[in-house]
Design a protein that fits this description.
The model has no long low-confidence stretch (mean pLDDT about 85). This protein has a two-stranded antiparallel ribbon. Strands 3-4 form a two-stranded antiparallel ribbon. Helix content is about 40%, strand content about 10%. By secondary structure, it is mainly alpha-helical.
């Protein structure tokens, strides 16, 4: 309970991630080379594109010996921390173990309540059935047989073709060359609207409430995700 009481926004001390650090260093070095290569030219020759795909251009080395020396030193710096440099974990050992067990427990799912910031631990099968029950409500949801991603791309291409002078080359590239990912769907439990939960709170009067699969629990649907059609 001590781990859960910290809330979902609490960040435990992460382990050393040398792969991510290496990528960050390479990107930082690339930005240094870009700044040295372009200087203030970019601001003077900037186009009017509102959106654009991220450039992968990296200037070649050899234009600035001091910069090359610095980047070479930074790129070859040892990433694995020495024992004396290790950061102390901000969780006691027992809480680290508890957090690990929670992460590995596939029988439960933990969500933040729709309102109030409370944590709700649910049986995974119960949660799945409640979400499926919500998706089966034909008043609000319907199953699509067609590939909406392809249709969306076709509509974008038609719109660009209809108004060819309204977009720049970089904007067209951004709008037409992308990979669509399937949307994520999940629900946040509306415990404040459940009579069964309200009754359990009044009866138990405890820091945490235990209730067996409340039938009247509803969920606030969240539908979106990075690079999905409705994000």
């Amino acid at each position: 309970m001590k781990v859960l009481n910290k809330g979902l926004k609490y960040t435990p001390t992460p382990p050393a991630d040398t792969d991510t650090l290496s990528v960050d260093i390479k990107e930082f070095c690339r930005k240094l080379r870009l700044k040295n290569h372009f200087g203030d030219k970019e601001s003077k020759t900037a186009d009017e594109s509102i959106v654009r795909n991220k450039s992968t251009f990296t200037p070649e080395k050899g234009k600035n010996k001091d910069l090359d020396l610095y980047i070479n030193h930074l790129s070859n710096f040892p990433l694995i921390p020495k024992p004396q440099d290790k950061v102390k974990n901000n969780l006691p050992f027992k809480q680290q173990q508890a957090l690990y067990r929670l992460q590995k427990d596939e029988s439960i799912i933990i969500k933040e309540a729709d309102k109030g910031g409370a944590l709700v631990i649910m049986d995974r099968i119960y949660y799945r059935d409640k979400i499926q029950e919500q998706l089966n409500d034909k008043q609000y949801y319907r199953e699509l047989n067609d590939n909406m991603e392809k249709k969306t791309k076709r509509n974008i291409n038609k719109l660009i073709s209809k108004f060819p002078h309204c977009t720049t080359e970089k904007e067209v590239d951004y709008l037409t060359k992308f990979e669509v990912k399937t949307s994520n769907f999940y629900g946040l439990p509306k415990i404040h609207k459940s009579k069964e939960v309200e009754t359990a709170v009044q009866q138990q009067n405890c820091a945490y409430i235990e209730i067996n699969s409340p039938k009247d629990l509803k969920f606030r649907p969240i539908v979106a995700g990075p690079q999905c059609p409705n994000s």
